[in-house]
């Protein structure tokens, strides 16, 4: 996957045909979603599945709204349909909900069944880029959102480090040896995937205990809706001391090539592999129960030692047997990412060998990147295995307007009806980060209850009506432009970020920070203008205010590049006066972006840091978690990290407190060089800035607020007056 990072995904088995609706749980859900105690306005009834798949109905009776479904998930989906189509309410991550005081009545019967047995959600990376510090309250909101949108197969890997502690302690490993194994909590995704050991640790015992309890809450709630969570399994990653404790074991050393020490992987051919895999699933089942779904990927962005089909067949059998030894009903959940990422290695013969070693109904493949790089259509739909069409979005948790809207609107249904798609069983969303681009996610999830392509243009008009509370022609014009610019996607792996995020440079682009635009930025300026014109009419809509800030942010982020290039031209001409002007303007732009983003809780560094600290019960724990939080979104590793800026964020606090400070240091050194007529000492600055970055990462000063300040509309209008003409005249 782009920039070294991985996505590790999983999948599921058939759902029970009988209707299973817990009325008390559904009423509690309605009370959570709809404030004001309106649950009594709803009647909840059970109906059976339709053709083995989930179904819901919406009707009216005696002045009340009837929600029917075969499980809690279908009841929730019926409620969401009612809210969207009758109350004009769009529930998303980034907005507050306003329910009409008088609930609209329903006439007739709305009947919806899903064509998809599986609706998958999440990605190993999401658990860190977005979810690292979530408490039960935040998880509860997310699970409710999953239910509203019909998701029935969530990846559920919180708390698994506690299970691994139990397994390895039962094998005689000491706390000290495990301290050299477990990573800090912001890095679990890459620890679980066997990329790193210990970074960001040592992991406190309180974290393991509290998050084991949190996982039990998560699973209980997901299962109460009828969801089938995907748990983890053993893929060979063992503690560094394993090679010393078991010298006869077949342990291979591997490196992620990202600046971290080697990790150790137990060869599936070793007899201990199945033993440990069985131990883990037994221990996990004892703590968390099971729905028989286990994610596993032993070759994630790693090339196997040989392309011999016999070897690959044998490896596949042994990985599956390590699950089935503990759970004969085990279903191996495998992502198809490697078949795209390492496509030179994974030729048809190799793919067939890996997949055909496992019974068809005990493996499901996630076609991870269907919206841009589908693999199903060049592997004979995974040679008979059930598979899921998926949207991969948001590498690194970056902040950027980006997506492939027309693809996610049409391609799932097109694939479903393609005779070549064979065993396509579902659709999924596999983002590295969430809580951004809410419109794209809403559009993708519109597919859950339909089997025909969506007209993206018409859908966006309805969406804007719901999200903003009224029809507004200016808003519709803006969304038409957004659909055909930032949301036209192309084949780029991720959206454009901003040069302000980069470690200071005169270059237009650098590694890890994407600045190339695949659309005309001046068209985005036109969309911005439409939203500004709509602002007075829509300024009571929280959804509109979020969108206005986000579009304003992207415009300013884009404008940073021509401004930086004017500065670079001044340096090349040794024009100190021009350099001082443009460098001052550049720093001011960052201040303005910081002030803009401070108006929304969605864009606050302080929120991220304070949520991290809240997980600790001692000062030492709080400081460790803050270190993890600061490090992940900046350096990612040590001060020489090759992953620096991978998880960059355009957040208030981070722009002014981190990115701006680096650029100010750079400008000071560059100005001195221009004044003295000597060459800029890039090596000296590189050392200086890396030392400063490392100091910032290790600071604990509570300097960043977690409460929004300022007015979104007023600040956006101010930015439009200040930058509208400048951005229009800029040379991109």
Automatic annotation (TrEMBL):
InterPro entries: Hex-like_dom2, NAGLU, NAGLU_C, NAGLU_N, NAGLU_tim-barrel. Coiled coil: none annotated. Pfam families: NAGLU (PF05089), NAGLU_C (PF12972), NAGLU_N (PF12971). Residues 1-19 form the signal peptide. Keywords: Hydrolase, Signal. Residues 119-450 form the Alpha-N-acetylglucosaminidase tim-barrel domain. The keyword Hydrolase applies. Residues 24-104 form the Alpha-N-acetylglucosaminidase N-terminal domain. Residues 459-721 form the Alpha-N-acetylglucosaminidase C-terminal domain. It comes from the Bacteria. This is Alpha-N-acetylglucosaminidase. It comes from Mucilaginibacter pankratovii.
